Amino acid sequence: MNKDLILLGHGSGGKLSHQLLDDLIIPTLSGISRAGQNDAAVVEHGGQRLAFTTDSYVVDPIFFPGGNIGGLAVNGTVNDLAMMGARPLFISVGLIIEEGFSRTELAEVLSSMRGAADAAGVRIVTGDTKVVPRGKADRIFINTSGVGAIEHSFAISGAGARTGDKVIVNGTIGDHGIAVMARREGLELETDILSDCAPLNGLVAEILAEAGEAVHVLRDPTRGGVATTLKEIALQSDKIITLHERALPLNGAVKGVCSILGLDPLYVANEGKLLAVVAPEAAERLLARMKRHPLGHGAAIIGEVGDGGGKVQMETAVGGVRAVEMLAGEQLPRIC
Questions:
Q1: Model's pTM, two decimal places?
Q2: Where would I find the PurM-like N-terminal domain in this sequence (predicted)?
């Protein structure tokens, strides 16, 4: 294999992505340490802490059960800001449109963006539009950037996990990735699987109101899924995270599709889920509050943090223990 070539796997969010970031992109552009590599940057200006993030969306197909690329782009940016405990404020939108794209479909994408922004309470304030020749893109790509205000003193970071902390997820995992893949591949399913695409800032506000400084880490497990995100947290915090297979919330249809196709739902992307790593004394009451929120009905405590060096393991349903590593290669390309 020619090591000079960029592969699809470099965009998976897994091992190859991290190698590209660690070996080339981050050292060249910024030199940010692993501990500082979170869903958004935290910067200070005039005594105000701000969160700033950017992301690009190349999902295929652009319309999928439960959403489309427009709502996905806005919600993804809102969620990255929320994972720093920020209140999302402003978003920019960059559109790269392929010649021949339907104006009707563009209108639908833009309407979804506006609806998602209104639902999340953010304003789209600036942007850019480019059109490229037919065959030089794939219908439409979207880049979004966002700014949010951090209006508390809590230290929320991937490096913040502490021994004894509990790991909570707010609902079933893998829904988005399987919904997109099913539409892309034309799978005939007996039941509809919908993307979980949603803005999480309202749920995060509830989490912080309930648990405050007991919240140590917030992350949304998008590309690479829950497994890869937890591995990132374990590495940043230099801890070991133990999952419990029986505690993982799974949609039965998603579990069935994964079983048939040989996929592990731990590695399938989500767009409306978060992982909260919280002090043990706050876990049960926080879980109860999350369950009262529309986006937290299926919340569950799925693991805990222990002393160890950057590892994730899972206690299986049959009583064994297996290592959980980052996604290797590209399981489901262009999922967001």
A1: 0.95
A2: 38-149
